[in-house]
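Lab notebook: predicted structure, single chain.

Context: the supervisor wants predicted structures on file for every construct in the current expression panel, including those that have not yet been purified. This is the next one on the list. No modifications to the sequence; it matches the entry in the shared construct table.
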Amino acid sequence: MIRTLLFSTLYPSSVRPGHGIFVETRLRHLLAGGEVETRVVAPVPWFPFRHGMFGEYARHAAVPRHEERNGIRVEHPRYLLLPKIGMNGAPASLARAGLGAARKLIAAGYDFDLIDAHYFYPDGVAATLIGKVLNKPVVITARGTDINLIPQYEKPRRMIRQAAADCAAMITVCAALKDAIVGLGGTAEKIAVLRNGVDLELFRPEDKPQARAAFGMNDKFALASVGHLIERKGHHLVIEALAQMPAAELYLAGGGEEEDRLRTLADRLGVAARVHFLGAIPQARLRTLYSAVDCLVLASSREGWANVLLEAMACGTPVVATDVWGTPEVVAAPAAGVLMDERSAGGIVRAVARLREALPTRNATRAYAEQFGWQPTTEGQLALFRRMLVK
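Prediction complete. Output recorded below exactly as produced.
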């Protein structure tokens, strides 16, 4: 039995059940084989008040110190994260919180074999600091922004390079991220590309007329844009594109800081009646949404491996997506969908038109998604962990 400690700020909680759910999903599939035991240390920023007037900070304060999710014990120690100026100090603060939690687990009888860290900065950097103190090997998974954005800052870039040298191994969710780490000075031989899978049982096609009825859809061509309502997800571009597609409707699933701006944009462009804001919705209802619409549009400026693409495909719905980072590795056949020729409203309009000219069948899109189950990733993790422990 391999004993691991999963360390990441990207892990769901009872207060934020959708936060980092892809980390939890990968872990659950890893544990299903019975060869790995784990505990989770998922630090959250310290904040003293829970009143709703403090927004996201209050939600951090409401996260319990200990909880169990899907049979997995999760610890949520607090670390100090100063708004706007805390980026450079976050790894040290995280390491202090994580080290204390790890020592408590060891003292209670759970002496783990390795640290499985998710997100390179600050989490992976902090994990290597903990690993040095406890003499434990560390594997770091890079997921996207941690490598395709954060290294533009000098101090974090330097710490990422050091963590890449200090860790025992690295995992990237797409080949493009591996290339980027090598470009930063990382050793290619230490990096395994293990892409995210999709839960083919959870995400499956539902009856389309019934799914459309669940959202009150008419017979117009229906687009979905799913993800946090933040600038880099490009929801504004999809709304702008909708203004050029008069016979289409848009369903936006997600919550975030850009909602008011997006509503204002839709009103200014005269498409407010055709833009439906659904808020953040649970995965089971996402399945219904994916099954209902005719196309998922992902207009992100950066993505490591976008889970929503495979989720939509698993429900039989093709996608239109920007040609960035790992996305071409996901959208790699006509049955999957179409990549935009440029990230713009016009690029979306052209890509949707191309998709509609040769719309794949739902069965073909589902069959394409079926090659992206979790088993290969689970097997790759197990093989990597075994190699680390025999060195």
